[in-house]
Design a protein that fits this description.
Blueprint (H helix, E strand, L loop, with lengths): L4 H19 L8 H7 L16 H6 L11 H4 L9 H7 L9 H19 L23 H24 L22 H19 L6 H31 L1 H4 L3 H20 L41 H19 L7 H13 L4 H11 L9 H16 L14 H24 L4 H35 L9 H23 L8 H39 L6 H6 L7 H26 L13 H8 L14 H16 L8 H25 L4 H25 L11 E3 L8 E3 L2
Antiparallel strand pairs: 1-2
Length: about 725
C-alpha cells in the first residue's frame, strides 16, 4: 500500500489540530444570575450602552428564538405540513370539490383579510399567496371558489397596476414583488366578469327556494351569505376597473357610483354573516382553515430579516373594506372640482385622514393625467392658467389684453406656467404619500418654491415694463409673485404643523413654533390673500366701469349692486388661526415664567440648534425672509423690555395668560362669524367647530390661570391633541 504526499500532509495537519484542541481549556461561566441582577436598575425601554455594543450592534442583532426576528424559528420546527398545492391535494389536506358552503365563505373572508394585510405593506408571499387554492385555481372543481380565485388574481393585478402608476408609495406602504406568480393573463376582464355573473345568478336562483325546515333555513342563510360575497367581488372588481381607466371614468361615473353603493350594501351583509364561515371564532395571527399555510412561501423570501406578518381577522378585514369603499366614494368627488385651488384643498383634506395606499393612488390617477408623470403639461397648464386668473386676475392672463398680442410676453408667461405645472404637479403627488414622508418631501419642495418665487418676480417685472411701454400703460403689479407667495406660505404652514401631527416637537419647543406661525407665516398669509382680494375687487370695479360707459342704467341701480369680497371668509379663517397661535405663544411664555415647562439638561441642550433645525427649510427664501435665532431672541426680548418699562403691562405670567385669553377670545369671535357665513361644507364646518372648541376651552383655562388658579403648582400642563391634530387643548393636572 502506498501513501501519497498529500495524504501524509493531511494526516499530519489533523494530528496537530487535535493536539492543539486538547491543550485549549475553556473556562465557561454562567452569567444568568449576574445578568438579571444588573438589569434591575434599568427601567422598561432603557438600553445599556457599551463601547463594544452600541446602538448599531443592537439594531443589527437577532433575538434568538423570537419568531419576529429569528428567520429559522418557524421554518425548522419539523413542520410536517405540505409545502406545495399537489402535495396538499395528494395528502388530503385540501379538497377540490364537495365543499361545505361555510368552508367557501371562510376561504373568501380569509382571502380578503390577506388582501387587506397586503395593502398595509406586507408581501404577497406572506399574505395572499398563503392561500393554496390561488396556486392552481384551474384544478378547483367547485365553481364558486374557482371563479373567486380567478377574480382575486384580477383584483391583485389592477391594484398593483394602479399603485405602481400613481408612484406615491414607499417601501413601508406597499410591496409589489410577485414572487414569480403569474396573474392569469390569459383570462380577460370580460371573461372574469362573465364568470362572476354566472355564479351570482346561479346562487340567486337557489336563494329563491324558501326553506321548509330549520336545517334548510341554515343552508338558505349560508347561501345568501355566499351570494353576497360573490356579488360584492364582481362589483368591487368592476369599480376598480373603472377607476383605473381614467379616460373612461367620466362616461362611467354614474355606473361607478352605483357599483360603490351596491358594494356598501353587500359588505354590510358580509359583516353581519361573518360568523357563517367555518372556524370563525378562532383568533390567531394567520388563517387556520383549510387551504391556508403561512409557511408555504417562506423559502421564497429574500435572505434578510423577515417582516413578521399578522393577518387581520375576518371582521377587521371586512370593516377595512367598508372604510375603503367610503374613501373611494370620496375619490370620485374630485371629478367635480374644475378649479385647481379647490382641487388642491381636496387633496390636502383627503390626506389628513391618512387613507390607505390604494385610495391615495386612485385619487392621483383619477385627477392627474395618466399618460406620464410629467402631468401632461398642456392640459395642466390650462388648469393653472385658470387658477391664477381666478385667484388674482393678472392682466397678462386676462382676455383681450394688449400683453397677449406680444409674442415675447406670451412666451414668457407660457414658460413660467410650464415650471408651475411641474411644481404644482409635484405638490399634488406629494399629498398622496403617507404623512411622515410628506414632511420630508415638503422640505425639498420648499427649495423649488423659492426658485419659482424668483422667476415669478422676474415675470412680473418684465410684464410691468412691457405694459408701461404700451399705448394704454397700466402698472403690472406683483400678480404672479403674490400667487406663488400664497402657495409658498401655505406649504410652510403645512410643514410646521405636520410636526405636531407626527409628534416631533417637545413641549419646550412649542413656544417658538407657535411664535413663528403667529408673528410671520399667518401674518404674511393674511397679507397675501388680502392683496389678491384687493386686486380682484379692482378688476371688478374696472369691468363694471367699462360696461357702464354704454349702459343707461341709473346711478341708483348701480349703487345697489355691491360685490362681496371674494376672500373674506378665507381671510377670517387665517386671522382666527393666527390668533390661536398667538394665544398658545403667550400661554407657553407664561408657563415658562412659572417653571411649569420641563426643560432639558443644560449640558444636553442648545435651543439655537433646535430652532435652526426646525426652521432650516425656510432659509432659502427671500420672501418671507427667514428669522434667524438671534433675531428671534432680539424680537422677543424687545417685547419683554417694553413691558418692563410699562406701568400697566408688567411682564408677568398672569399678564401673559391674560394676553393669551384675548387672542383665544378674538379667535372665537372670528370662528363664530365664519361658521355663520360659510357654505354648508361638512369638512369645513367640522373643522371650524373643532377650532371653536379649542378656542373656548383654552380661553377658560388661561382665564383661570390669569386669576391665580394653581399658582403654586409646578405640575406641567397637558397638551391634548385629541380634538385637533395641530392645535391642542390645554389641560391642567
Amino acid at each position: 500500500m502506498s501513501i501519497t504526499v498529500d495524504e501524509l500532509n493531511s494526516a499530519t495537519m489533523n494530528e496537530e489540530k487535535d493536539s492543539l484542541m486538547a491543550r485549549i481549556n475553556y473556562n465557561w461561566r454562567d452569567i444568568t444570575e449576574d445578568f438579571f441582577d444588573s438589569i434591575k436598575d434599568l427601567e422598561l425601554g432603557e438600553l445599556l450602552h457599551d463601547e463594544l455594543f452600541g446602538l448599531f450592534e443592537a439594531m443589527s442583532a437577532i433575538e434568538m428564538m423570537d419568531p419576529k426576528m429569528d428567520a429559522g424559528m418557524l421554518c425548522n420546527r419539523g413542520n410536517n405540513k405540505p409545502y406545495t398545492f399537489n402535495q396538499a391535494v395528494d395528502s388530503g389536506a385540501i379538497k377540490l370539490d364537495n365543499f361545505e358552503v361555510t368552508d367557501v365563505i371562510a376561504i373568501i373572508d380569509s382571502t380578503y383579510a390577506c388582501i387587506v394585510s397586503w395593502l398595509e405593506g406586507h408581501s404577497l408571499a406572506q399574505t395572499v399567496f398563503t392561500n393554496l387554492y390561488l396556486h392552481q385555481p384551474s384544478q378547483i372543481q367547485d365553481k364558486s371558489l374557482k371563479t373567486f380565485c380567478y377574480a382575486v388574481y384580477k383584483i391583485i393585478e389592477i391594484i398593483k397596476d394602479c399603485i405602481t402608476r400613481a408612484l406615491v408609495f414607499e417601501e413601508e406602504d406597499f410591496q409589489s414583488f410577485m414572487y414569480d406568480y403569474r396573474l392569469q393573463q390569459d383570462i380577460t376582464e370580460q371573461k372574469t366578469v362573465a364568470m362572476l355573473r354566472e355564479v351570482e345568478e346561479e346562487l340567486h336562483r337557489k336563494s329563491r327556494i324558501k326553506p321548509t325546515t330549520e336545517e334548510k333555513e341554515k343552508e338558505y342563510n349560508d347561501g345568501l351569505a355566499l351570494y353576497a360575497r360573490m356579488r360584492f367581488t364582481k362589483m368591487f372588481y368592476q369599480t376598480l376597473s373603472f377607476l383605473g381607466k381614467r379616460d373612461q371614468l367620466h362616461s362611467n361615473l354614474t355606473d361607478c357610483q352605483r357599483l360603490l353603493s351596491n358594494c356598501t350594501d353587500m359588505i354590510q351583509v358580509m359583516i353581519r354573516t361573518v360568523n357563517s364561515g367555518s372556524k370563525a371564532d378562532e383568533i390567531t395571527d394567520h388563517p387556520t382553515i383549510m387551504g391556508f399555510d403561512p409557511m408555504i412561501n417562506q423559502r421564497l423570501l429574500p435572505p434578510t430579516f423577515p417582516r413578521y406578518t399578522k393577518i387581520k381577522s375576518r371582521v377587521e378585514a371586512l370593516e377595512y373594506m367598508d372604510e375603503l369603499l367610503n374613501r373611494l366614494k370620496m375619490v370620485i368627488k374630485i371629478t367635480g372640482y374644475t378649479n385647481f385651488h379647490s382641487a388642491l384643498d381636496f387633496f390636502l383634506e383627503f390626506s389628513r385622514h391618512s387613507p390607505c395606499i390604494l385610495s391615495r393612488s386612485l385619487l392621483q390617477i383619477v385627477y392627474l393625467p395618466s399618460t406620464s408623470r410629467v402631468f401632461g403639461l398642456q392640459s395642466f397648464n390650462d388648469v393653472l392658467r385658470d387658477a391664477a386668473r381666478n385667484f388674482i386676475a393678472p392682466p397678462a392672463l386676462m382676455p383681450k389684453n394688449v400683453l397677449l398680442q406680444n409674442h415675447q410676453a406670451k412666451e414668457c408667461v407660457d414658460t413660467f406656467l410650464n415650471h408651475c405645472a411641474n411644481l404644482f404637479g409635484n405638490l399634488l403627488q406629494l399629498s398622496g404619500h403617507n404623512r411622515a414622508r410628506q414632511r420630508d418631501k415638503l422640505a425639498h419642495l420648499l427649495d423649488d418654491f423659492a426658485t419659482l418665487q424668483d422667476e415669478a418676480e422676474r415675470v412680473d417685472g418684465y410684464m410691468h415694463t412691457l405694459s408701461m411701454k404700451s399705448d394704454t400703460p397700466r402698472p403690472h403689479l406683483a400678480y404672479f409673485s403674490t400667487w406663488i407667495l400664497y402657495h409658498t406660505l401655505r406649504v410652510m404652514v403645512m410643514y410646521l404643523l405636520s410636526g405636531f401631527e407626527l409628534e416631533l416637537y417637545s413641549v419646550h419647543e412649542y413656544h417658538y413654533i407657535f411664535w413663528y406661525l403667529y408673528e410671520f407665516l399667518y401674518g404674511w398669509l393674511v397679507s397675501a390673500i388680502t392683496r389678491a382680494d384687493s386686486f380682484l375687487m379692482e378688476q371688478d370695479i374696472q369691468n363694471e366701469a367699462h360696461k357702464g360707459r354704454g349702459s343707461r342704467k341709473s346711478a341708483k341701480n348701480k349703487r345697489k349692486k355691491v360685490a362681496p369680497r371674494p376672500y373674506s371668509l378665507e381671510i377670517l379663517m387665517y386671522q382666527a388661526m393666527q390668533n390661536i397661535c398667538g394665544g398658545y405663544y403667550k400661554a407657553l411664555v407664561g408657563f415658562r415664567l412659572d417653571g411649569k415647562i420641563p426643560l432639558p439638561e443644560m449640558q444636553f441642550d442648545s435651543e439655537r440648534v433646535r430652532y435652526e433645525h426646525r426652521l432650516l427649510p425656510f432659509s432659502s427664501f427671500l420672501t418671507p425672509p427667514p428669522v434667524h435665532y438671534q433675531e428671534f431672541l432680539d424680537m422677543t426680548n424687545a417685547q419683554i423690555e417694553k413691558s418692563k418699562n410699562s406701568l400697566y403691562d408688567r411682564f408677568t405670567s398672569e399678564n401673559q395668560y391674560l394676553a393669551g385669553c384675548r387672542h383665544f377670545h378674538h379667535s372665537r369671535n372670528m370662528l363664530e362669524k365664519a361658521l355663520s357665513l360659510y357654505p354648508a361644507n361638512a369638512n369645513t364646518v367640522n373643522e371650524i367647530r373643532d377650532l371653536l372648541k379649542v378656542a373656548k376651552t383654552n380661553f377658560i383655562v388661561l382665564k383661570l390661570l390669569a386669576d391665580g388658579h394653581k399658582k403654586d403648582s409646578k405640575d406641567p400642563p397637558v397638551f391634548d391633541f385629541s380634538c385637533h391634530q395641530h392645535f391642542p387643548l390645554i389641560k391642567l393636572t
